[in-house]
Design a protein that fits this description.
Layout: E1 3-4, H1 5-11, H2 15-26, E2 35-39, E3 43-51, E4 70-77, E5 79-88, H3 89-94, H4 101-123, H5 136-139, E6 147-149, H6 150-153, E7 158-159, H7 162-171, E8 178-182, H8 183-195, E9 201-205, E10 208-213, E11 216-221, E12 228-230, E13 233-242, E14 250-255, E15 260-264, E16 268-272, E17 276-282, E18 288-301, E19 307-314
Parallel strand pairs: 2-14, 6-19, 7-19, 8-11
Antiparallel strand pairs: 1-2, 3-4, 5-18, 8-13, 9-10, 10-11, 12-13, 13-19, 14-18, 15-16, 17-18
Helix pairs in contact: 1-2, 2-4
Length: 315
């Protein structure tokens, strides 16, 4: 069963694990919502839906046309996101009376790993860098019919309008569970609402306000960029609409051996996703202990119709 980091933190009684995943989803709005599947080995092979099959009505005696869904076989390899932190023993021993120096440095390294994951989730490109997994930008193309442009597919970038967001949402042929945009695009969206005399819906989740558009939560990220080029316009951004439905939308992946295990009487052994914290031990040449935060992970998109990108977004 695919789980979010938020759900996983509730299921575990391991305080270190809870602290790690809570730090991860605190600093990545995307990780609050993304679900993760456990996989065996270092790669996952699956069929990605390209185009849906069709059905129609017939009279008796009519010839029935055959139509099947088309798929592309995809193999996604797990990638390694790793960060090391060397904690000086003098600082640990003399400055931890108010705040544990090891805990502080590990939390900061978890944040860095979460931000690196979010960066790859958006802009990862395994063709350009084999150490990365493919992100949404690579998966959304005109050929896949899941990349559309602002201003009714204008050649150049256009100022965002509410109709553009509706167009983006309609491009996903299934439930849309998350909208992802830059901070600048989110400010523009709020300004559009204020200009119409309305305000965006906001709910408090995990003690943090989350904005919604048409009942869909919005995750703001710093990794889309606001200086992308479309046509002759060089100050554009992108907005993504993502389904998180199992077997249709986007899901995170992690090797099951690197997951936190918890046994429950109702479900048996469950695998909980998230970065691992490993103590490497004392360093040889300096008076410090080294800790490593690592995450063997990637993402999968089960259908081209489960994700969409609106490009050429100007604010």
């Amino acid at each position: 069963m695919a789980l979010t980091l938020v759900e996983s933190a509730k299921l575990s009684v391991n305080q270190v694990y809870q602290g790690v995943v809570q730090t991860a989803y605190t600093f990545s709005q995307i990780l609050r919502f993304l679900k993760f599947d456990a996989i065996k080995g270092n790669a996952y092979q699956y069929a990605r839906e390209n185009a849906a099959s069709t059905a129609t009505v017939y009279d008796p005696g009519d010839t029935i046309a055959e139509s099947t869904t088309s798929f592309t076989q995809i193999t996604t390899a797990l990638k390694r996101i790793i960060g090391d932190a060397a904690i000086d023993e003098f600082a640990q021993q003399t400055r931890s009376d108010q705040m544990d120096q090891t805990a502080v440095q590990i939390a900061l390294k978890v944040r860095a790993v979460a931000e690196q994951f979010e960066s790859l989730f958006i802009a990862g490109d395994s063709a350009g860098n084999s150490k990365q997994f493919d992100g949404l930008r690579v998966m959304c193309t005109t050929a896949n019919s899941n990349r559309v442009g602002c201003g009714s597919d204008a050649t150049d970038g256009m100022v965002l309008a509410l109709e553009d967001l509706d167009y983006l949402i309609d491009t996903v042929k299934g439930p849309v569970d998350l909208l992802i945009m830059s901070q600048k695009s989110k400010r523009k969206l709020k300004n559009l609402f204020r200009g119409s005399g309305a305000s965006m819906e906001t709910r408090s989740e995990l003690g943090t306000p989350v904005d919604y558009y048409s009942g869909i939560p919005i995750a703001a990220t710093n990794f889309i960029g606001d200086a992308l080029t479309k046509g002759g316009t060089v100050d554009c951004s992108e907005i993504y609409a993502v389904s998180l439905a199992e077997g249709f939308g986007v899901v995170g992946m992690q090797n099951e051996g690197t997951m936190q295990s918890v046994e429950r009487p109702d479900t048996g052994v469950m695998r909980l996703p998230g970065p691992q914290v490993v103590q490497i031990g004392p360093m040889e040449t300096v008076d410090a202990n080294k800790w490593r935060v690592r995450w063997y992970t990637a993402i999968a998109a089960y259908s081209n119709r489960g994700i969409a990108c609106l490009d050429g977004v100007r604010s």
